[in-house]
UniProtKB/TrEMBL annotation:
Origin superkingdom: Bacteria
GO biological process terms, semicolon-separated: aminoglycoside antibiotic catabolic process
Taxonomic source organism: Actinokineospora fastidiosa
Annotated PANTHER family: N-ACETYLTRANSFERASE EIS
Lineage of the species this protein comes from: Bacteria, Bacillati, Actinomycetota, Actinomycetes, Pseudonocardiales
Residue span(s) of domain N-acetyltransferase: 2-154
GO molecular function: aminoglycoside N-acetyltransferase activity
Name of the protein described by the UniProt record: N-acetyltransferase domain-containing protein
Length: 394
């Protein structure tokens, strides 16, 4: 029987890292241990677990400590990554055991939420995760933004390499964290990956002394494509300043592709902008983010509508139990519940309601709970649908 333990520092090289190239890269390849050593700083604060037998690493899973906004409440979030099992040890339950241990370790460290990019959602469905909406990309020509060039706007833009603007970029992300439901702020040691690569430009829009928007991007060649990672703006002025900068690339690039929030509508950005907005989901190459509550504490203080309902969470080692959700004060109160009519929810069902991506009827239709009409009406009012902006992956 394999044993699970935590590894840290250089020990990762001889244990967890031995599984990464095969699981995630093109192999076989002559990738030297030294190449992997160069990645160590980006794992510095990760909680890395391995399953081992006779000193051989059979499987691994890790989590980085991040922050995420859930309905206005910012909580510590575990970013689960680097889940891999040796090809000869697969389908023996190693990853499932590692995930359970990772969850309980991260709860012990105070994390209330968890997210990951799945290789296949069914593996994580059973572990309580629900898919969040994919951020679409909008593709258009720089000429399509020409109407913005004539608009008088307050503010200005600054253009620099991400290496020089990293602190500004991160500071702006911190201002979005308390504002955007679903937004994630990753730890510095992980976000610093963009610094070493230094393969992104950063544009910062400011109005007065206030940053109103940032975007990182790259250009793949003369006459080619300009690809923006995430369009982050505090308001429409910030966005217009950034788009006007993009418009200046007419006759240099042919197309511009921008990753936007699912509730953004690029066709409204400029009159007559011809744009293709699309979101592809594919496994394992283009997965949507999956998320779950690790603790009911994540719901305390969440912005909610009026309502009061008893729920029972079933089939989950972390959340199983009975609770009363009360929104009569304008923010959510969660307490241990007594008796009465209640909705029965799996962890994935509750997570779908909490993140605002499922209506109570969706929960029933997906087999993620049993909810009476009366309880559904209360839940719908308490936790109305919301679109998470799962930006800030870093
Ligand atoms: C994905 C991976 C980590 C699974 O590890 P594993 O140790 O074989 O997983 P487990 O044995 O714990 O399986 C747990 C459950 O997932 C299911 N599962 C495992 N691999 C699966 C696959 N490729 N497709 C669908 N389901 C799968 C198992 O059937 C099991 O479900 P069950 O208990 O209901 O039968 C492993 O195949 C791997 O290293 N793949 C390459 C890297 C990768 O994709 N990592 C995941 C990144 S999110």
């Amino acid at each position: 029987m394999s044993a699970i333990r935590q590894v840290s520092g250089d020990e990762r090289l001889r244990t967890a890292f031995t599984l990464y190239p095969y699981a995630f890269d093109e192999t076989p390849s002559p990738a030297a241990v030294e190449d992997l050593r160069g990645l160590l700083p980006y794992h510095e604060g990760n909680h890395t677990l391995i399953a081992e037998e006779d000193a051989r690493t059979l499987a691994t899973a890790a989590a980085f400590p991040a922050w995420q906004n859930l309905r206005g409440v910012v909580s510590p979030m575990a970013g689960i990554a680097w889940v891999a099992t040796h090809p000869a040890a697969r389908r023996q339950g190693h990853s499932r055991r590692l995930m359970r241990r990772l969850h309980s370790d991260m709860v012990d460290k105070g994390h209330r939420l968890a997210t990951l990019f799945p290789f296949h959602p069914s593996f994580y469905d059973k572990l309580g995760y629900i898919c969040l909406p994919q951020n679409p990309t909008a593709t258009f020509t720089p000429e399509g933004l020409a109407p913005l060039l004539d608009v008088r706007l307050p503010g200005e833009v600054r253009w620099q390499n991400i290496k020089d603007g990293f602190d500004t970029y991160r500071a702006f992300q911190r201002t979005l964290l308390p504002r955007w439901h679903g937004f994630t702020y990753t730890p510095d040691y992980r976000a610093a990956r963009v610094l070493d690569a230094a393969n992104r430009w950063l544009v910062t829009a400011t109005v007065g002394d206030t940053v109103a928007g940032t975007m990182t991007y790259r250009i793949d060649g003369y006459g080619g494509a300009l690809i923006v990672d995430e369009l982050l703006c505090a308001d429409a002025i910030g966005r217009a300043l950034l788009l006007r900068f993009l418009a200046q690339h007419a006759h240099q690039v042919t197309t511009i592709t921008v990753t936007v929030a699912p509730d953004d509508f690029p066709e409204t950005w400029a009159s007559g902008l011809a744009v293709r907005t699309e979101a592809e989901t594919a496994f394992p190459t283009a997965p949507p983010l999956m998320a779950r509550l690790l603790s009911m504490e994540a719901l305390h203080g969440a912005h909610c509508g009026p309502g009061r309902v008893a729920i029972e969470v079933v089939d989950d080692q972390l959340l199983a139990g009975r609770y009363l959700l009360d929104g009569s004060g304008g923010t959510l109160e969660v307490s241990a519940s007594g008796t009465g009519e209640r909705a029965t929810l799996t962890a994935a069902g509750l997570s779908g309601l909490a993140y605002g991506v499922l209506d109570p009827l969706d929960v029933v239709a997906r087999g993620l709970g049993e909810i009476t009409d009366a309880a559904a009406a209360e839940l719908r009012s308490l936790l109305p649908r919301r679109v998470p902006r799962s930006f800030g992956k870093g």
